[in-house]
Amino acid sequence: MKINKFFLILIVMLSFKSLYAIEQNNEILKNKILKNIRCLICQGQSVYDSQSDFAISMKLVIDQKITEGLSENEIYDYLKNQYGQWITYDPELNKNTYILWILPIFLFLFGGLMVLRKLNIQK
Amino acid sequence: MKNKILLSLSIFFLIFCFIVFFKGLDNSNIYVPDSVSEKPLINFNSQDLFSNKKILSDQIFTDSEFYILNIWASWCLPCRKEHPHLMKLKENSSIKLIGLNYKDNPNSAKKFISEFGNPYSINIVDSNGTIAIKLGAYGVPETFLINKERKIIKKIVGPLNKKLVKEINLIIK
Questions:
Q1: Residue contact B134–A61, C-beta within 8 A
Q2: DSSP bridge partners of B122
Q3: For A73-110, how does the pLDDT look when each residue is reduced to its tens digit (9 = 90+)?
Q4: Highest CATH level, class, for B36-172
Q5: Is residue A86 a contact partner of residue B31, using CB atoms and an 8 Å limit?
Q6: β-bridge mates for residue B124, sequence order
Q7: How near does any CA of chain A get to the CA of B102, in Å?
């Protein structure tokens, strides 16, 4: 009888622990997503940092989506579908953003070439 | 000679930058993606502002050619400014106006309606703003023009004005 009680308590404790772990993981995921989303009505703030009405409601919706079981990428896709690419801080490589991605590489190579040329001249 | 060319190029570049940024001052800070047009409307459930009865979106979008979903709040000053335009749109029989009362005190919302008139056929409540977010809205006031296939054909961020009402009337003609 005592053994049964012991196991019952153990099972209850373990299930609480796993529930707590799930909750903690969800909280980490939620914060990660919130930091990667732009508050569209604020100046240069993420939803995580903002206390605007938009951000407060957005936090609730993301909470709901995580509870529904959506993955991180599925949540980003959902938000992009509603608000466009601008909502995330990490722009995708497409026809509208290729300059944004290629220009820094081009400038880096160009700068490197300039330095090399200067070094060769000095030699 | 070389220095003069460099100087005039720099001045030209500075003037160009100044013009670009000066023109940009007039632009709205809110970015609205083009892809919002022809987007299917989400399903949602809410409750009626006056009767407190639960309403599903399927019960709202049933019998009209066009719908205007207007997000409003009694605390929002631009909403007062656009209210006369909504009252005018109400006169058009092919439009059904739906109000989405955003993060508001129900008593203040009811007072607002009794003071300025009720342009809406149905007024639903979005107490925590999640319906607005799911619709892809930014805040208040905001207006969606929806067709009978339940697709969003126009989204207006900010208050309605004469020009926008004209645009809406042209679309539904």
A1: yes
A2: B98
A3: 999 999 998 888 889 988 777 777 788 889 999 999 99
A4: alpha beta
A5: yes
A6: B48, B100
A7: 10
Of A15-29, A32-46, B24-38, which gets the smallest average pLDDT? Answer: B24-38
What pLDDT sits at residue B35? 47
B33-47, B67-81, B93-107: which range is least confident on average? B33-47
Q: For the residues A17-26, what does the mean pLDDT come to? A: 74
Sign of CA dihedral B165, B166, B171, B173: positive
Mode of pairing for the β-strands spanning B95-102 and B122-126: parallel
Here the ipTM equals: 0.77
Scanning the structure block, which residue is given the tokens 């000679």? B1
Cα separation, A100 vs A70, in Å, equals: 30
* A residues 76-95 lying closer than 8 A (beta carbon) to B: 81-86
DSSP letter assigned to residue B121 = S
| In chain B, % of residues over pLDDT 70 | 94
Ranges of each domain in chain B: 36-172
Superfamily of domain A2-90: Cytochrome C biogenesis protein (1.10.8.640)
User: b vs e for B63-84, b when ≥16 Cβ sit within 10 Å of the residue's Cβ?
Assistant: ebebbbbbbbbbebeebeebbe
Q: Tell me which chain A residues have a C-beta less than 8 angstroms from the C-beta of B135.
A: 82
- DSSP secondary structure string, A57-119? HHHHHHHHHHHTT--HHHHHHHHHHHH-GGGBSS---STTTHHHHHHHHHHHHHHHHHHHHHH
% chain A with pLDDT above 90: 51
- Count CA within 13 A, CB hemisphere, residue A37: 30
CB of B45 less than 8 A from some CB of A: no
| CA B137 – CA B130 distance, rounded (Å) | 10
Reply yes or no: is the peptide bond before residue B40 cis, omega within 30 of 0.
Answer: no
Question: From residue B77, how far is each of A38, A114, B73 by CA, in Å?
Answer: 25, 57, 9
